[in-house]
Write a structure and sequence with these properties.
Elements lengths: L1 H6 L4 H4 L14 H16 L2 E3 L5 H10 L8 E5 L1 H10 L9 E2 L10 E5 L6 E4 L4 E13 L2 E3 L6 E3 L7 E13 L2 E8 L14 H12 L3 E6 L18 H18 L4 H5 L8 H5 L1 H20 L7 H14 L2 H7 L20 E4 L12 H12 L1 H6 L2 E3 L10
Parallel strand pairs: 1-2, 2-4, 3-4, 10-11, 11-12, 12-13
Antiparallel strand pairs: 5-6, 6-9, 7-8, 9-10
Helix pairs in contact: 6-7, 7-11, 10-11
């Protein structure tokens, strides 16, 4: 597609205006001009934006570029609460009101808010392909507590201290050579192990299902800080050890799902393990213990034991919830205590692309990125998991 856009660039002589004499600045080269035009063509080709959360480090480019003429209206897609945050930027005070909930057209409605619901699949249409997207709610720290780096105390701002900042993880599906393919793109997210509202498990369940079915091979996720960053200063982000800890969770689920018949696996619904399951975690443990006891009694009475598939399903539920309190207490999952992946390289073939890094200008360009990648690769669990880490470069074309 980029090649097509490059070939469609107009000749410089055709676009130059005789009213303006040519400049002689060093930056005004054919290559630079083509770069600007290509960027314009790319922005013009975008029909929709999947908004994960409304923090400015993710929205600034969208907001500033909204004043340029980049084709017809574009959809800004997200949960209602997410889009309400974006709407603040386009309220006329911080930036002109160039976004609207309506579809009437006109200058002030170039961007259109499009609300979607958690776990509800929706289509994104492009001239080349139709993408099917499924949004999962995830947690990105708390809104009402700000840690003080000097005292390690928490300063309460004028917000509910228990209010969690919502983010979104999107599963994006497409058809390639008559086969379903998908990738997972996380917004900013924190580890379940230190979250006040852990919501990553349902995403890993869906990812594990798609991975075992051969549909998913790439996951795009953040890893903002180096390992020397204290947990209380992560601000709803990952560091390498905690990211690998979450991948241990994925590996456990993958191992269990590999034991399920294909048709049963296809029917696994990750929404059954949504936030209500976490709230009722103690009830889940009681139910799991009850099922285990019933199984023992059935065996003693000579009854037919649970099928291998049902045993695997129970193991998944126990692995997901049995060690949650332990994880919250020690700050790391560590494979949920007794539950760790047991097969060799369960995530072999999976690529984790690191999308979001908080660089430190005092350390120099890319120092944090390089350190994070080094810490990910040197972690003893990385080779055991079989996963590959990759740090995309700006402007790089990636085929997957």
């Amino acid at each position: 597609m980029l090649d097509d856009l490059r070939n469609s660039l107009p000749d410089e002589s055709c676009s130059a205006s005789s009213a303006y004499p040519p400049t002689t600045t060093k930056a005004d080269t054919r290559q630079d001009v083509d770069g600007y035009r290509l960027a314009s063509r790319i922005f013009s080709s975008i029909t929709s934006y999947l908004i994960t959360h409304p923090h400015l480090d993710h929205l600034a480019g969208l907001i500033i570029n909204s004043s340029q003429k980049f084709g017809s209206y574009k959809s800004l897609i997200g949960f209602e609460k997410t889009l309400k945050g974006v709407e603040l930027a386009f309220g006329g005070l911080l930036w002109p009101a160039l976004a609207s909930w309506s579809k009437a057209g006109g200058l002030v409605e170039r961007l259109q808010f499009t609300q979607v619901e958690p776990f509800a699949k929706f289509d994104v249409l492009t001239p080349a392909v139709t993408f099917k997207c499924t949004p999962f709610p995830i947690s990105h720290g708390t809104i009402g507590l700000v840690p003080d780096a000097r005292t390690h105390a928490y300063l309460q701002v004028e917000k509910d201290p228990n209010e969690v900042y919502d983010s979104i993880a999107y599963f994006i599906e497409f058809e390639h050579q008559e086969k379903n393919r998908s990738f997972l793109f996380w917004g900013d997210v924190e580890p379940d192990a230190i979250s006040t509202l852990p919501r990553n498990k349902p995403v890993w369940i869906e990812a594990a299902k798609r991975f075992v079915l051969g549909e998913l091979r790439w996951i795009w996720i953040e890893c903002s800080y180096m390992n020397n960053r204290p947990n209380n200063l992560l601000f709803g982000h990952f560091k390498p050890d905690l990211l690998i800890d979450e991948l241990e969770t994925l590996a456990i689920i993958v191992e269990k799902f590999k034991q399920l018949p294909v048709e049963e696996l296809k029917n696994v619904n990750a929404t059954e393990f949504s936030i209500d399951e976490y709230i009722n975690e103690s009830k889940m443990k009681d139910e799991t213990q009850s099922v285990s006891q019933d199984s023992v009694e059935d065996d003693e009475n000579g009854s037919v034991p649970l099928s291998q598939a049902n045993q695997a399903s129970q193991a998944v539920r126990k692995a997901l919830f049995g060690g949650l309190n332990h994880a919250l207490r020690i700050g790391y999952n560590k494979g949920f205590g007794f539950f760790q992946h047991t097969t060799e390289k369960p995530l072999d073939g999976l690529v984790i692309a690191i999308t979001h890094v908080k660089e430190d200008p005092m350390l120099g360009c890319d120092v944090v990125s390089e350190t994070i990648m080094r810490e990910l690769h040197s972690n003893s669990s990385t080779e055991d998991l079989g996963v590959k880490f990759y740090r995309p470069k700006q402007g790089e074309r990636i085929m997957f």
